[in-house]
Design a protein that fits this description.
single chain, about 150 residues, alpha+beta, Pnp Oxidase, Chain A, seven-stranded antiparallel sheet, about 35% helix
């Protein structure tokens, strides 16, 4: 089980502005030119919708969601719900989220960091790290495969 964390205060501050811009329909890209969306997921305790801006990883025609800050609230909510919505402005897409195994998550993180992910410092690995180090990191930073829920 991943350790429970909180994002740094500056992330929460930036999320307020980013959420406003994404709700207005702007097509924002995060660091590394990754697309940004508003992720809305049902709260695991309250059942109320919770929304946070996120950056998706797009590789080989698939979309992934990784948490550079570990098992923060949206991660725990997504683990419990298994589904969410991705939105930008009026465009909303329902998605199913499957948490990847350590090996699968390590492969995604390794490919992403070798591709120049600017969040690499949060994962405490770099492009030269061994696969075992990526597996260790994957246990602390959950990775989800997002698939359209048609």
């Amino acid at each position: 089980m991943a350790k429970t964390n909180k994002a740094p205060w500056f992330v929460n501050l930036g999320n307020v502005m980013t959420t406003t811009l994404l709700r207005a329909g702007l097509k924002l890209v995060g660091p590394g030119n990754y697309p940004m969306y508003l992720l809305t997921v049902r709260g695991r305790k309250s059942g109320q919708p919770r929304t946070v801006p996120i950056v998706t990883i797009e590789r080989n025609g698939k979309r992934y969601l990784a948490s550079p800050f570990g098992a923060v609230a949206w991660v725990r909510n997504l683990q419990a719900a298994g589904e969410a919505t991705l939105a930008r402005g009026r465009r909303v897409e329902r998605v199913n989220a499957r948490e990847l195994s350590l090996k699968e998550a390590a492969l995604v993180l390794q490919e992403d960091i070798k591709g120049g992910n600017p969040f690499a410092s949060y994962y405490q690995v770099d492009a030269k790290s061994s696969f075992e180090e990526f597996e260790r990191v994957a246990g602390k930073h959950p990775v989800f495969l997002l698939q359209s829920a048609m």
